[in-house]
Sequence to fold (698 residues):
Amino acid sequence: MSEFNVDDILAEFRDGARKKVPTSDNAPAPKTTSKNIGATDIIKSISESQKKTVTSTAANDDDYDEYKPTEPLFSIEQLRKIEAQRKESFKNLSNNEKAEQPAKKETQEKPAPAVIKEEKPAPAFVKEEKPAPTVVKEKQTEKPKEAVLKKEKTPQQTKPKPATIFGDIEDVKKKPAREEVQVNINTNPFASFADTIKQNRFLFEELVKRDFKKKYKRTVLGMMWSVISPFLTFLVQLIIFGFLFRRGDSNFIIYLLTGNLMFHFFSDTTTTGMFSLYSNAGVLSKINVSKSIFLLSSNVAGIFNFLLTLLVYFVFMIFTGVNFGPHLILMIYPIVCMILFNIGISYILSALFVFFRDIQYLYSIATNLLMYISAIFYYADALPANMQIVFAINPVYRYIAYMRQLVIDSVIPDLTSHLICLGFAVGALSIGYIFHKKTEKNFVYYY
Amino acid sequence: MVIDVKNVTVVYKTGDFKQIGLKEYLVRKIKGTMKTTQFVALDNISFTLEDGDLLGIIGTNGAGKSTLLKVISGIMQPVKGRISVNGKIAALLELGSGFDPDLTIKENIYLRGAILGYTRAFIDEKYPDILEYSELEDFEDRPFKQLSSGMKSRLAFAIACLVEPDILILDEVLSVGDGAFRVKSEKTMMEIMNKGCCTLFVSHSVPQIRRLCNKVLWLDKGKQIAFGDANTICDKYERYLETVANMNKKK
Fold:
């Protein structure tokens, strides 16, 4: 004797025109005469309808199949026809396991195309949740092979597939496309573009200030350490490879230093960029801010350190008698390219780090290995010609080589080098940005 | 229409995929033993708010109130439905977020203001007002971690309110603080509402909602039970709570 039915009430909201909310209609109307004012009924009906809702929410989140017929659609004749059609289409399939498809209630698991996509629950889980009524709206099941290829299945595909009960009948409505999720949050609708720039810049500055204050708050040495670190590596390499092994020529010092500085810029910036999103999880999970700003602001610290090391680099350049001239202006070019490259890699790494914490260990191993194949402390011609491809595809080596060519040989590199450097930068940035955009919706669940 | 929410459904993915690392993830993917369940946090919520509405969101714990606020602020995406929000949002979902414990109050105010999306000039202008409202003029240069929780909540509330948002979102933040703070914050909320700002706030205190709100949304376990006029729904909610309490007593 439940006078109160949540579904009915909600139906008023759901269908058609939204009435101006009449208050007494949609509030729960407990019977005032009975002792239990429908509270138990409220709870019961809620849990019932929730069960129904849970089942009607498809397990796979891109298959919200709302189609739920309330009366039989087809006559017996039609059903027989459908069966015959289906049997025919079965013959076209290679796998014969489809014979028992209609009986199965489970949905196929669809592996994610990207590394990080919504995981589909295993069939076992789905089976438990679905009670009998959903047999009617059972989705089209496919070969596992096809499930690998597609995420969304529609009944109107032309390849031979096992037809469901609604299969090839024309008058069946097209399965509605995945229902549009429209989120239109328009804060500050009257702000001009200049204002947006201003407020983003303000946030950017404040974040950079915050990072600097936290990092360098303690001692002067704290700030110096990030500058000293590559120089110590350089010294050790100089002693070992320059003097002990006598591998270097007269320009070995500057050759070595260039490699170390550029590599350190890359590894340091990308590593801090990796942590940037997750370490700000407190803010990002509660306040709607643009994530890119956090990433960019964390890169700024790395850029700042690199510029400090460049100062010392200039000193070395003077002391080792490097040819100073207008061509050195072009040093800006690999630096800017490398900045973009680092940002792109940071995008990818920070997204991965939110999902998998152990990326940080993998990445530190990767940077170590990368250091060995970037020709930092040996000459590139140490490798035979057919292995030079290793250097050609190594973006960090490209930037180092460009720098060396410019500074040591005093030669402006050719157009190919320019294009390759730019290509790596733009490529990393676009891949990173796209990856970030695709996965950022799911960050919230992982913080 | 300032906020328009239609048929919004939010689903959480739960499962052990958060604790496992990359290798385990790949292994399970390959073996097909990845287990995830989906928890429907919000199911088919629809309502509309105009300028000047003060919406109180009530419901038992786990009803999805915080999730709804997160969806409206844009932190979470629903899997179904439409949301349209027009206006500058100031969301206080958690009092301490956006503040950094090591920085001073002044720096924190600027940081928080920046995160909320204001320009530096604006914060400069409002800065004395913020300090005055939160009664923290003497503590300007103290590190944030030295404040008491009441001070922190006052500061957070001041920053969120005094910067004149179009939409104010508060998640049970009016329940902390001493009596004086509560009176003050309620007064500010009434002023804001009269200014034409739209406010959403979650509370467990039905009298407070009756006092402040003109519309109420009642959620229960993700489902929308009622949306409408505050007094009627509050009555029914109170009766509901009573009957639940009576039933529990009988058991």
